[in-house]
Amino acid sequence: MTDATPLPDLICELCRLFYGLGWVSGTGGGISIRAAEGIYMAPSGVQKERMKPEDIYLLRGDNLDQAVVLQAPRDPGLKISECQPLFYNAFRQRDAGAVIHSHSIWALLAARLFSPQGEPGELVCQGLEMQKGLRGTGSLDTLRVPIIANTARESQLTASLSAAIDAYAKVDAVLVAGHGVYIWGTDWVQAKTQAECYDYLFRALVESQRMGLPIAPRTQLEKHP
Ligand code: ZN
Question: Of the candidates 76, 46, 40, which has an alpha carbon nearest to the alpha carbon of residue 58?
Fold first, then answer.
């Protein structure tokens, strides 16, 4: 399936879809896509479902040490997303083609199940079919996703997010306690697919807990009856 949609238009379209899922409400969250000509990124603090293609930044893709603007939005009052250094972590450390930041309530609640005080931790999920939508993961595997503690400013997450990306090479996601999740892929299609599968799994864990069903894999339950 080929898609000739210009990437600034595609970012606006995807943000409208994500808004409908509750991933980018209240101006939070978003998506950044890397292409041959550079990195496309939304501005900070704008209503993500109402962005226009001319609002999207184009940044240099060959310098991931800092954000270098190739093309700025027409509105001079805009500034680059606070997520920029976090998106760059996934581009630099994983050679990602796209990164999604979601403020989904399911990501927040799932992280709370495993890190009730907002402390660093690990989400564990096992035996769910939708795990197959995640890179290198089967439905019977045990999935482990890192949880990092939140900070006052989004950019202050950069070091802990980077450490979690290094420590959990098998997964393409990092949860942020009390906040949301960062998910990436080799391109925007894989990033979106994985973000949808993660959101499903997070919701399955939260709803299981609500219904009094076991949420942890058997081995964990045996350790903590
Ligand atoms: Zn955020």
Answer: 40
Q: What is the CATH number of the domain that holds 128?
A: 3.40.225.10
Here the tokens at position 189 are 């299609």
Q: Which pLDDT belongs to residue 224?
A: 45
Q: Report the distance separating Cα 106 and Cα 207, nearest Å.
A: 9
Whether residue 214 lies inside any domain: the answer is: yes
Q: Is residue 95 part of a domain?
A: yes
Mean pLDDT taken over the chain: 93
User: Is 129 an active-site residue?
Assistant: yes
Asked, for residue 2, whether it belongs to a domain, the answer is no
Q: How far is 26 from 38, CA to CA, in rounded Å? A: 27
pTM of the model: 0.94
Catalytic residue among 37, 54, 129, 207: 129
Ligand 1 geometric centre to CA of 118 (Å): 15
Provide the 3-class DSSP secondary structure of residue 144. strand
Q: What is the pLDDT of residues 156-199, one digit of tens each?
A: 999 999 999 999 999 999 999 999 999 999 999 999 999 999 99
User: Tens digits of per-residue pLDDT, 97-118?
Assistant: 999 999 999 999 999 999 999 9
User: 222 alpha carbon to ligand 1 midpoint, in Å?
Assistant: 35
Residue 200 lies inside a defined structural domain of this protein: yes
Count of domains observed in the chain: 1
Segment 2-19, tens digit of pLDDT: 678 999 999 999 999 999
- Residue 50: domain span: 7-223
Q: Residue 95 C-alpha to ligand 1 middle, in angstroms?
A: 21
The C-alpha atoms of residue 106 and residue 11 are separated, in whole angstroms, by 22
